[in-house]
Amino acid sequence: MQRYIVLSLLLFATLISQAQTRISGQVTDVATGETLPFVGIYIKNTSLGTSTDVDGNFNIRLASTPDSLTAAFVGYLPLTLPVKKGVAVQTLNFKLNTNAQQLQEVVIRPGENPAWPIMRRVMENKNANDKRKLTAYQYEAYTKMQFDVDNVGQQKGKGVVGKAITSLVDSQMYQAGEDGKKVLPFFISEALSDVYFNHDPKRSKEIIKASKVTGIGLQDGALVSQVIGSSFQDYNFYQNWVSVLQKNFVSPIADGWKGYYAYELEDSTYIGNDWCYELSFKQKRPQDLAFSGRMWITAEGYALRKIEARVNKSANINFVERIGLTQELQQVGEKTWVPSETEVRIKIVGLTPKRPGILAKVYTSYKDVTVNQPQDNVFFDKPVELLAGAGKQAESYWEERRHDTLSTADQQVYATINALRETPKIKRFTNIATILGTGYKSFGKVSLGPWPYTYAYNDVEGHRFQVGGKTNINFSNKLELRAYAAYGTEDDKYKYSLGGRYILSRKRWSEIGINHSQDLEQVGLMSDKLEASPFFLGFSRFGELRKPILVRETNLYLQRDVLRGMTERISMRTRHFDPQYDFAYYKNGPENPDEVASSFTATEVSFLTRYANNEIFVENDNERISLGSGSRPVLSLKYTLGLNNALGSTVDYQRVDLGVEQAFVMGKLGNALYKLEAGRIFSPVPYQLLEVHTGNETPFYYDATYNLMDYFEFASDTYASLHFEQYFEGLLFNRLPLIKKLKWRVQGSANILYGSLSQKNLNLMPEVTPAGTTQESFKALGHTPYVEVGYGIENIFRFLRVDAFHRLTYRDEGARKFGLKFSVQFKL
Questions:
Q1: Which spans in 247-288 are helix H?
Q2: Contact, 441 vs 469, CB < 8 A?
Q3: Which residues pair with 40 in a beta bridge?
Q4: Alpha-carbon gap, residue 388 to 619, rounded angstroms
Q5: Of 259, 372, 551, 671, which sits 20 to 30 A from 402 (CA to CA)?
Q6: Is the pTM of this model over 0.70?
């Protein structure tokens, strides 16, 4: 009986396959080779047909085999290709020629472009149709993501990644992509969430109710689950700029639409129950960050009903060959429109055409939309919230609540990835990649590292060896312990650090921590501002150490988010400074020259307030990661009080520091970033406690340093500074015929520093130490500010940035007046 059933099923499958013809292929421009999306593929004199997707691919199944298929697209001559009889699966690739006569007719057409009156009506109704005019709105969103590796399995892998893939993966695990080429799925996810928006003040929140994440290389899906929701797929074309992959593209219905796009009225048709004008749009300059595609505008209300937009590989974006974005909208309330479906397809290529690339597909649907029912401000304190148990929902839950059924292909992707994850070689490869990416290697409840600080060599310590580690979330989801020990072969001294932190609350993030350490530091490189530049600090441990000082520090802090975007931190620390060079200062001022000390202790209490409106955080185990605050400024205020005679302290002082930083879009000029800082120390202190401005004697560029200033060159007790960077993207080089192919980008920068040093601080340091050596002095800034300007090119070979800097002031003999700095960056 079982054999009979199997035989029957095979016979039935054979009959079905014989009764159907599957034809797939791709449509390209014959001159440029560029793929063409939204091309009509049909059988002449019938209603049967399909259209190409955003990558120019099509796939059609027919009950009977036709004689031919025809491809037709606006601006191109139609092309008909014969279909082979008796071949169940075949490929037809269309290469279309442009219709020069039709394009010429567009150029010489008399009168006004018929698309322009429609666009003017779109502008008139833009504010009324935009969802941002609503007081509030909320909906349930379902998001599905899938990532595949392409350009593998066709031949023996090349390069490190290609060889790793082809050697670790069974050939049976590859799947056929939409263009017929082999792809290897490595990530798929689903998320079901409730999304809320308030307009005044602007607030958003996403509660992820269910999350299903499967991927190669994932140790824990909790972090990924927080960034796969619909909040990160919110594309609003009513805005002038639409952010895709952190790049800002001008919208086809932006206020300045005429300056960026050419439009054509193609047709009128129904989309759902709405009669719409079909308009095509095309960017005027290929290298601009703009779209090409089609959109459908409702005849009643002139609202955006549907849009199919794509970004060509000619746009100045690294590693991205194509971006396709399709969105349908639904009307809610009296006139406002919100998305009902959004699909994004992105093809990311390798460093060379033969390297493996990535195909990314993201689909989001929206339902149960409710408008004008605002939530309390307290409700939005945590913008992204992953409910407990969201990643453990049963399959029955998904089958009941998915907005659409999971296709057979999707089920196969899940099975393929799960099989790959269990492959021993893949597990080893994943572990290595995790160590390189995070710096830590996990062993159960403990993670060893970070590996970049394992070894260094300098003139004071000789060979420095360091080993350390920390507990991870397997140990506790509240308590984290960390420590390291280091030893120098030349100075024969041990250095160490012991610390811990305890998370008091995750809802309104609160934590308390303590740390005790003893290690070698350098004057001028002890600023808290360098915490975000770990590689700069690591590199500074090599070679000659300038002003080495042994610091023994104990630090205790308490931090809490009192409001959304507002963080308060109070800390107390005591530091004992033991310079490893000849140093002295007047312990009780120059009035008592006999009381000279070569080391000192400082105990201080500090209060920090930081405000970043609309900043979004996600949690990674026991850490939280900031995803930025968009174009909103970030403000900080810190007050520090030095306590004399407290815990052995020998100095007392007060200090105030202010900071403002902001990144924002400047339209055609690209993107800009500025950082303003100011501060003052109100009492004379040893110069190690002053604001010793951070110089940069390395060949590498760091935005937290002054690139032509030497270490320990300037110090201030009162200062104000401006750091500014302007990224022009492709604004200048995109206009040059040959250079634009290189996709280089121009950027400029400036550092301006005002500072002063009181005579009391200068008098605190004797010219000669008790050992009889002359102390090396430092400069104080006068009435003239320190100014350096830079200009450079980024995206050289798609990863190298070169900056040239000029020092405009304090150009004394010995000062570096010009310099080149290099940095490696991977930007889209």
A1: 257-260
A2: no
A3: 51, 72
A4: 13
A5: 372
A6: no
